[in-house]
Amino acid sequence: MLQTLYIENIAVIEKTSIEFNRGLNVLTGETGAGKSIIIDAINAVMGHRTSKDIIRTGEQSAFVSAQFENINGEVSKKLEELGFCDDEGTLVLQRTLNASGKSVCKINGKPATVSMLKELSGYIINIHGQHESYELFSPDTHIDYIDRYGKCDKLLAEYQEKYREYKILKKKLDEANTDDRERLHEIDLLTFQVNELSQADVKAGEEEQLRAERTALLSVEKIFSLLNDAKIYLSGNDNFTGGIDAVDSACSDVQKASEYNAEYSAVSDALSDAYYNLRDCAENISDAIDNLESDPQRLEEIEERLDLLSTLSRKYGCPSDELGDLLQKLETRLDELVNFDKNRDELINAVQKSESVLMKAAVALSEKRKKSAAEFSKRVKEEMSFLNMPNVELVAEFEQIDFTSKGIDKAELLISANPGETPRPVAKIASGGELSRMMLAIKTVLSQSDTVDTLIFDEVDTGISGSAAQKVGFKLKQVSENSQVLCVTHQAQIAALADYHYLISKQIDGGRTFTDVSVLDYEGRKNELARIIGGVNITDAALSHAEAMLRENRD
After folding, report:
1. Are 33 and 494 in contact, with CB atoms under 8 Å apart?
2. Tens-digit pLDDT profile for residues 346-361
3. Which of 202, 210, 211 is nearest to 318 (CA)?
4. Domains in the chain: ranges and CATH
5. pLDDT per position as a tens digit, 468-517
């Protein structure tokens, strides 16, 4: 569950730390106090897209940290997949937003990416905001609800793997089914390209080797001059005594000196070794000079070869080292086109087999969905009936379509809110209040099979009031028995049911707005409920009503 949420420099919140608890946590406050900012901060640390405009005016960065305790096995497993480990059941997510647009993310203190936070968030928190109700207008989302309820993920994954294989084979067959004119034209082009590259016979690393050899050939005169100077320094010439003779003379003198004093013997031996080493160096240099020769013909051959490699690289749009791999690909494609009939027949058979296997997987998934959809619709209908929609009818309508990444089903939940009316698409008949209650009913049903420990409802009471609002509160209370629930609400009936009540308030100091979050005690709750009931002027009647609501729900 979410235990601690720390927010710094998010919109009108300068700094605040909120300790949440198990059960039903309700957040209330006047419009504009900053309730939605709490949800925005949670969305940010969950890796959802956010704007740098969320950073408090005048600040260069914002920071959000969320600490979760007693995380479940699914979260631990996902952490391990992402390369992290849980800290004895504790999970800490952090995100720093910078005015430059960049963000820094961490999971349990280790660097992470925004995509990692988002991927992990689906296992931790389920957020339902006002806009999500309007997702019901899109039938594409309905099949996702059915799949979640029916735990169709394994069958869906198996289908999608076979779907990917089918698409690859189908693409190859489509490519093979080009018309004869195109095929013959491509064969001519490929034949020329294969012949050209085969004759060139380009080897990996050849260009680098040729450039090194060319550099050496172009440097022959310079090398000769340097080696000859070195030879003279060692062996001397008519005008210069070389180093070898000088060392030999020095060695002779020191050797004679050692006959008078033995302590010079070591120096004499060292000079003797140096003399013979220098003679060896001089001989090696002399041999190198003798073997050094200019080869204009070889240099011309290298230049022509390098020019060919450069031309082919530009022509085929790849480095010369990759021309060999390109040749293999062109040969493979040419073989496919030349052996067109044989390859096409093989592809047709492969596609047919793949399609048969795919259809079998699709049917298995579809049957599971239809069975789950009937149960799901029944359960959601029961929840909606409790939420003051007693005459609601809800059915799942299926239509078979061509293969898609989700299967062969187009599913849509049809609703009738009044007796005698034929169920129709949600977008055509549902009001805002009905949408909110339908989505809450769906969330309630899904929460009983979900592994997510924390559910957040952001103003799900939009468009409802009276007994309907109270029943929404009862439903949220029921859901909170199995999951931690955070709820932003404007309804006193819902707030009165809270296990923990948080007041979001704002103050203006020095021309700046500051938002504060505080946990209300009994008297604080009574006053806040009275404000929600009566508005700005809190009357004795409103206070009495608020106290009665608290006593009723406490009992």
Report:
1. no
2. 888 999 999 999 999 9
3. 202
4. 1-124+452-520 (3.40.50.300)
5. 888 888 888 888 888 899 999 888 999 999 999 999 988 877 777 778 88
